[in-house]
Design a protein that fits this description.
single chain; Methane Monooxygenase Hydroxylase, Chain G, domain 1; 3-stranded mixed sheet; 5 helices; plastid; small ribosomal subunit rRNA binding; ribonucleoprotein; structural constituent of ribosome
Length: 187
Amino acid sequence: MASIQCVSSCISLRKQFPSINCSKTSNFIAHSTTTSYLKTLSFSRNVSETIFSNGSLTMKVVERPNRRSVVCEATPTTKKPDSAAKRARQAEKRRIYNKSKKSELKTRMKKVLDSLDVLKKKKDAQSEEILSIEKLIAEAYSAIDKAVKAGALHRNTGANRKSRLARRKKTVEILKGWYTPASSLKV
């Protein structure tokens, strides 16, 4: 194997340097001037110590032990990751996300209900004051819809909460006389 590598190396050297003569010899003639310039010229992992002497290239085949380097050593895992722990982590993430959606929803609803109560207790309330409350209702509806879309709230629960806000607004309008319900006709 080493001689094949040596021959292929010599052939490639002859193409680069036509005056070089490659021959395999076991004895080395080392001159101080040539060794200082070229100490070793290694063509492969099995060939070393090349020295120019008398215009010819001499090589010595040296057997090196096979080195196997380990790039990354991984410890084998015999146990699969715990799926219950992963489920717990996922559930905790969802709980926090859903909690924020529900908190926003409750805050918006409370603002609407409090402002409707203030308007209901006010003696000289004007019909234009309901417009600011309708903006708050629109924001609450948006929060409810987002919570339903995210899965934090069931769609029926969302519909019930929207209905509660609309009924409370309608009650205040009827009480103040700003809205008269259509009379139901019984036949």
